[in-house]
Amino acid sequence: MTSVTTPGLDNAPTTHAKLLSWVQEVAELTTPDRVVWVDGSDEEWTRLTEQLVAAGTFTRLAAKPNSFLAQSDPSDVARVEDRTFICSVDEADAGPTNNWMDPAEMKSLMTELYRGCMRGRTMYVIPFCMGPIEAESPMFGVELTDSEYVVVSMRVMARVGTAALEAMGTDRPFVPALHSLGAPLDEGQQDVAWPCSTTKYIVQFPEERTIWSYGSGYGGNALLGKKCYSLRIASVMARDEGWLAEHMLILKLTSPQQKTHYIAAAFPSACGKTNLAMLEPTIPGWKVETLGDDIAWMRFGEDGRLYALNPEFGLFGVAPGTGWDTNPNAMRTIEAGNSVFTNVALTDDGDVWWEGMTDDAPAHLTDWKGRDWTPDSAEPSSHPNSRFCTPITQCPILAPEWDDPKGVPISAILFGGRRKTTIPLVSEARDWNHGVFMGATLSSETTAAATGAVGVIRRDPFAMLPFIGYNAGDYVSHWVETGKGADAAKLPKIFYVNWFRRDADGGFLWPGFGENSRVLKWVVERLEGTAAAVETPVGHVPTPGSLDVSGLGMTVEQVESALAVDKDEWRQEIPQITEWFEKFGDKLPGTMWDELEILKSRLDG
Ligand code: GDP
Ligand code: PGA
Ligand code: MN
Ligand code: MN
Question: In what residue span(s) does the Phosphoenolpyruvate carboxykinase GTP-utilising N-terminal domain sit (predicted)?
Answer without folding.
Answer: 22-239
